Amino acid sequence: MSPDTPHKPDRLGTIQPAYVRPLDLKRGRVDLTHGAGGRASHQLIDSVFRPAFAPTWPSGWQDGGDDGAVLPDLPAVPGSATGGKLVMATDAHVVSPLFFPGGDIGSLAVHGTVNDLAMMGARPLHLSVSFILEEGLPLSDLLRVVQSMARAAREAEVAIVTGDTKVVERGKADGLYISTTGLGQCRPGVRLSGRLAQAGDAILLSGCVGDHGAAILSQREGLRFEAPIESDSAALHGLVAHMLDTGAALRVLRDPTRGGLATTLNEIAVASGVGMQIEESAIPLNPTVAAACEFMGLDPLYMANEGKLIAICASEDAERLLSAMRAHPLGREACLIGQVTPGPAGQVRMRTAFGGQRMLDWLMGDPLPRIC
Amino acid sequence: MSPDTPHKPDRLGTIQPAYVRPLDLKRGRVDLTHGAGGRASHQLIDSVFRPAFAPTWPSGWQDGGDDGAVLPDLPAVPGSATGGKLVMATDAHVVSPLFFPGGDIGSLAVHGTVNDLAMMGARPLHLSVSFILEEGLPLSDLLRVVQSMARAAREAEVAIVTGDTKVVERGKADGLYISTTGLGQCRPGVRLSGRLAQAGDAILLSGCVGDHGAAILSQREGLRFEAPIESDSAALHGLVAHMLDTGAALRVLRDPTRGGLATTLNEIAVASGVGMQIEESAIPLNPTVAAACEFMGLDPLYMANEGKLIAICASEDAERLLSAMRAHPLGREACLIGQVTPGPAGQVRMRTAFGGQRMLDWLMGDPLPRIC
Question: What's the whole-model pTM score?
Answer without folding.
Answer: 0.87
